[in-house]
Amino acid sequence: MSKRSILVVDDDPDSRAMVRTILESDGFAVEEASGGKEALERMETYSPALVLLDIMMPEMNGYDVLVHMKQKAETQNIPVIMVTAKGDPEDLITGYKDYGVEYYITKPFTTRQLLAGVKLVLG
Asked: From CA 52, how far away is CA 95, in angstroms rounded?
């Protein structure tokens, strides 16, 4: 696991492409998953330093992915940043308190906001 490897999980290909471009331009190695199930399958063989996780996705939402991650020894300590259009304070409290999310970035966000959040979480 590289300290610079990030798994981006979002059902919107444009969002994934934008996040990939920002992160790669700052020297991060980026893997992508288009949904929760794919993300969990990826993490069976790939251990990212950080997961950027969308909340609202078909099939399996970001919170469901988090629950699965926390149940497995291999993934339970991987930090997660929720990247979401849900910026309501109640949503944020739920993520922090109920799911142990490390950080939230609400859409739309700037390059600076994204990189600041990633670097804050990765130290």
From this structure: 13
